[in-house]
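Objective 1b: paired records.
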Amino acid sequence: MSEPLNALLIEDSEDDALLTLRELKRGGFNVVWERVETAETLRTVLLSRPWDIVLSDYNLPPSFNAPMALEIVKQINPNLPFVVISGTIGEASAVELMRQGANDYLMKGKLIRLAEVVRRELREAEIRLERQQSALELARTKERLQLAIAGSGIGLWDWDVPSGNLIFNERWAEIIGYSIEELEFLNAETVRQKIHPDDLQIAILALEKHFRQEKETYECEMRMCHKLGGWVWVLASGKVVEWDKDGKPLRMTGTHLDISGRKQSVEMLQKLNETLEKKVQARTADLKRSENQLREAQQIAHLGSWELDVSTRKNSWSTEVFRIFRLDPDCPEPNYEEMLAYFPIDDRRRFLQLIDRAIQLGETFETDLQIICADGSLGYIFVKAEAIANEGGQVTRLFGILMDISDRKAIQEALKRSEERSRASLLALPDIVYRINSNSQYVDFLVSPQGKNLVDPQQVIGKSLYEVLPYDLAETQSCLMQQALATQTTQIQEQLVLLEGKPVHEEVRVAPCGNNEAVFFIRDISDRKLTELQLQQTNEELMRATRLKDEFLASMSHELRTPLNVILGMTEGLQAGVFGEVSDRQIKALQTVENSGNHLLSLINDILDVAKIESGQMILDLSATSVQNLCKSSIVFVSQLALRKQIQIIEQIPQNLPELLLDERRIRQVLINLLNNAVKFTEVGGNITLAVTLLSEAEYKEKPFLRIAIQDTGIGIAPEHIKKLFQPFIQIDSALNRKYEGTGLGLALVKRIVEMHHGTVSLTSELGVGSCFTIELPCGNAVLPTPKPESQFNPDSPLQSIPSTALAPPLILLAEDNEENILTISSYLEAKGYRIIVAKNGQEAIASAKSHQPDLILMDIQLPVMDGLEATKQIRLDPDLVDLPIIALTALAMEGDRDRCLAAGANEYISKPIKLKQLALLIQELL
């Protein structure tokens, strides 16, 4: 596989540059290269893109050489490899260049080592870059480490043990309140004097122990005297880093960390523990108060206690129970029979049954009961009771609680009424609605009067989906429900079921509804599906009709262009004298034939363009376009016709117009069409004005527009005919039809192309005075003018001779199956000095290309056996033919045909009918 290489060649000889490139390719490189000859060009190219290597000649007249080039390269990219390739450099000059920074040098006559040298220098450049990056990263790491040490607040010291000298940082001095200048002459003895007497022996023992065990780091806590008085707690640590040959320590380093704050924290923690003990005692008192507050809270919650003596049937109520029954707490408790009177008959019987079971069986019970309060109002209570038995197991007392739940019952009643309303609403829906729990069981099932159902709702509640529905349908609905519950979002899916033997399309919506349940809405969408199917069939019919129309247009374009190619080609060849000399009278006749053929070609192009726009197939190729150049180039196309009618064309085009984002070819087509019409309908001696105006936002009320007006002094148009003018195939009247030729398609194309650019076309005219067509294009996408490189290919430039570098006339392979086209093209090109061989199908073209190795191929696309596109692809697979120029000559002129040809491997594309002079110029350029 070839290695990619971006090579910059400093060489004044193109032949030597090509030899260098050939040697690089032979060495396995896929080279992207550029050649420069001057210092100015070298600077520009070095800055334009990244390069892998510079290959330079030594002498580069005038006044430029390799040392100068090396200096420029090193200024811009010091790491870029620089290799000298010269035929005249001496060994002394080469050594001097190497000293200045060149990486190697080679003689032009001995380039066999070039690929090896390039690979070596690329590797070394990569290594240099890695070293630079490593050095940079090391410097950054060192900087980060220094910052970390500076920010950590750690004091550093370094002790020369034999001399006793100490070196330390500023933080070490700051810990004991000194500046580093004040402790400049500090040594081991003076440091000992600053240690607290009670801690000195501990520090000495730790140090001596460390001297005996070289791999151990000593650490101890001690107090040191502060400059301002008092003692500072420090955590000292150290390690011997250098020993003499006898095992005695020579050098030791360590750190000091101020831990006074930590020591203070320990003392504070002890005080805090004492404080916490006091708080615990206070908390105990608070808990007792909380118990009293809880009792008060129970009263607020309408919660009371009651007790029943089984043997005496005596009640004992708390104060809150009196309040719940709307009784005065100062009154005596009602007896057993009086208590039962506060319950409606049904709830009284249920309450008695629960009391009897509790007494007889010792059961605990709880229930909700309705009560009739002393003031006659109704309420609800929650009652819970526990049976208390004696040692013999006989129940002697019932003790319980009683809570007022009237508010909760009211809420439940409201919810019940809301559910009933929701159920009524669901019944009104034209759907099946049911709820499913997390176990895939039906909780509820509703069918609206309009809905259709396969099952009886009363028979499915409580059953599983899998018991009611077919397994695959049940599995699908179960998965939908799980997704809805997991994501808490509505899931939507369509399903097909059989109802009374008929397929029915249903839309299933599943939404979570709380309590780990999901609600299903099933709607019959069979009618909608039928409508969608009918719409799809209609769309398919429309697409088929559109495709047939496109195929018909493409076929007609090909069938019409093929004979036109022969007619126009033969005419051009006869006028050029390819088939012998012709008289002036015959030339006039040939010009008449050519004009008629071009008129027919224009008609074909207009019909195809209108068809493309109507079917939406025309796609604009937008690019930044100079309006000034666009207008001037459009005028050139009609200048000869205007000159023959002595019509003056006046240009009013301001300078520095903005560039617009346009399809340059289509807008030029618009301008040429309008200019042609102006020339056609203007009498001899008249004038035409092309004026360009930039309208401001204030003038147009939205955004700036560019106005192009083409005004003539022609015959003019009546007001009642202006609306018809932009319709396809419409001309003004029969009299004009007889006097002025045309299809009536030009202005329709103008209107549609301008509207595709979001612009407008308007017309003002007066009979006998003239007309003014105005185009207004939006400038919202305007850009500043940018210089464009001039094209090197000009179809109107004189034909030059065949390149003189060839040893024999170039050989051209013509792949064409139409005999008339073969005769036309081969006769013209042979007259221009080319050798021609012919292949009449794609397979012959491939075989001839491999056997004859032509200099260029003219490939028709519609060939028998194998078409031209496939033949081009096969030719490009041959390594010997991969760079062979191929021009596609085809009658295919529909949208996208050019792109297909270029994608297959063609270098250029020309649609038939072919201008032979243009073809010859293109062949010369490619060769």
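Objective 1b, second protein:
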Amino acid sequence: MKVVIVESPAKAKTINKYLGKDFEVLASFGHVRDLPSKDGSVEPDSDFAMHWEVDKDSKKRLSDIAKALKGADELILATDPDREGEAISWHVLDVLREKKAIKDKPVRRVVFNAITKQAVTEAMAHPRDIDEPLVEAYLARRALDYLVGFTLSPILWRKLPGSRSAGRVQSVALRLVCEREEEIERFKAEEYWSITTALTQGGKDFEARLYALDGKTVDKLAIKTEADAAAIRAAIKGGTVRITSLEKKPTKRNPYPPFTTSTLQQDASSRLGFSPSRTMQVAQRLYEGVNIAGETVGLITYMRTDGVQMAPEAIDATRRQIGKQFGDNYLPEKARIYQTKAKNAQEAHEAIRPTDLSRNPKNLSHLEPDQLKLYELIWKRTMASQMRAAEIERTTADLALEGADRPITLRATGAVTTFDGFLALYATAKSKEDEADRELPPLAEGDTPAITDCTIDQHFTQPPPRFNEASLIKRMEELGIGRPSTYAATLSVLKDRDYVRLEKRTLIPEDRGRLVTAFLQSFFTRYVEYDFTASLEEQLDEISAGNADYKDVLRQFWKDFSAHATEIKDLRVSEVLDALNALLGDHIFPAREDGGDPRECPNCKSGQLSLKVGRYGAFIGCSNYPDCNYTRQLAESATGEASANTGPRELGVDPETGEEVTVRTGRFGPYVQRGEGKEAKRGSIPKGWDVDLIDLEKALRLINLPREIGNHPESGKPISAGIGRYGPFVLHDGKYANLPDVEEVFTVGINRAVDLLAAKAAGGGRGRAAATVLNKLGDHPDGGEITVRDGRYGPYVNHAKINATLPRDLKPEDVTMEKALELIAAKAAKGGGRKKAAAKKTATKKTTAKKKAAPKKSAKSGAEAGS
């Protein structure tokens, strides 16, 4: 018996069928251990020793693997063929060795780019050892991310209350979004006019545009005023034109290479409207396998790659399919060979392609709609990559105006597709008509087409577009920032931390994000530079290639970074705010219409407005505080009002009521709705759920909450499950018990519900025992242990006398040291917990005069912290 380890249970199930009874395939469910989110997980002073922690669920899975190994002859590590896959295999093997479960059993590493019987069988015949340089590149990346996060984040919390944290790659991606927004804000629209002349020749109409004026070629911004445009129009309408030159030039349009992770996400976004995370989730399903004629088959190759090449046998299969479907005329003489152009391309994986080109999307109608759409996109791109180029004849005609006071030249252009080539895959009736509309009538030098009309139109230049998720990924790839496996996760972090918001599919930086970016650009300039981040990625690639020692890279980085961070820790908050006032001045102090000083206080007229920080984060206040107590929010956009107007997305019709079901976004976040008007039934979308992945089934489950589970066996009264202010719950006779996970709301049975209610009743009341400690995170930077506990009103984090309740979307086992410190700091800033009670008790002992002075003193100290 041979034990095979893969990541996911779906993958395990498929591979088990291929390998047969002599193999036992088990899933690790991704990474089995990680660096604990507390100080000391990476120790620079101990040669960057890394201390790993196995989570609770993984402990059981690793025990199951160790148990299976007792009666096995061999261990085969078959995780994904990239850095993360190599790291998972290394972690599993390391833990098993610690458990002494390996003994003298041979260990082999196999990789396959596709989950098909042929690919898996061939991989098993060609095992290798774990790629140590690849693992070391992973270790370096994890150590770098940890050290940056745990060094920068506490500085951010102290200097900019309300900010959450800063990551190595996320901070650079955030800078891109913020800088684009600054470009848009600085943009000054410029007026220009276009002139279009309608002509006819031989009964066929065509158009020409102004090309040259007074012997000089004009660009689109040349005509600045309506008067100038009208004068040129009058000249054209008063004259005749003659063709002075005619050029016909054959050109070719070549197909794009097969998909990489980045280009798949971009194309799926523009053509299908998929977010990057949605694209990767659907691609994962296609890779791991779907049911085809009773057999689970992987439909595409591995979907995390920046390689554009295909295996020779895949190219041959693609060319055969093209010849069969379109004819040999659509095949180039030689196969097309593509090379990766992306900076710092990852290890040489294949591009994303179908595992079998003969599986035409037209014959896979039983797939889920999203799966079919994405598979068709991949299938067409792969086929097109090996087809002949489209051949196009472009015609350019220059027409001189005769009888005018000034030399004027018009230009008409047209194109005719003489051979469609790869475009045959994408051709539709509409696109062919559009192509025909661009064709010019038969023309020759000396012809004098008749002028039928001349129109002028006003235009204004447009600012650069905001990034959407796909275009941001493209830009990051061009700069060499991040990797295929990190793109979607990086964007999710920025959204989850409220640094950016997604509005009409574009990324808009929140003021919190702009403050963080401005802080990092002011005080950690080097570490958010694009070139520096890209060069660090290059060093990681050198490690994976075996050309660099990963600890040398860490030493070099940490020496400079830690020294710089130590300097910044001593900065006064006022120094930080002065720098941010200067850097964000145009945004937080916009120009006034009357031309006055934008920083003049509108209340007292003598004070200067400045950025300040208080217990609830950053705001704008007057320098004459406390004599002037003028304050305002940073920007109206921070309220999120704009998102309330996001249009509904139709999901389908409720089969029971016949009403339309939609996904919408309101001032309190995304929700689903059935019907319209006051009688419409609504349900909030829980945090952590991807709005793009909400379908009709999920929407109806939310709308129909609370869900009745059954009657209590003792009272006979109903028990229901729902989602409330404090998270998922079960309810019986006015008494609540928390559910650990949102998904359990839809699955919890009567026995489980009764047990939860009984446990809650047993632990309730005034005589309840002390809260249970669920997890010890480590020591607070100021001293004292931080723990996660289960209290009477749910889970919370504790430090000294401060208790901070967990957000309802955060599970106790997911609380990191970083998150705990943030919650504790926020609670302390609000004067929460026992400190608040103690302060109140002390205040009652003071005189009436001091009582009246106390609020003023408290407010002053809060404002001074931001001055």
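The longest strand covers residues 240-253. Residues 646-703 form one domain.
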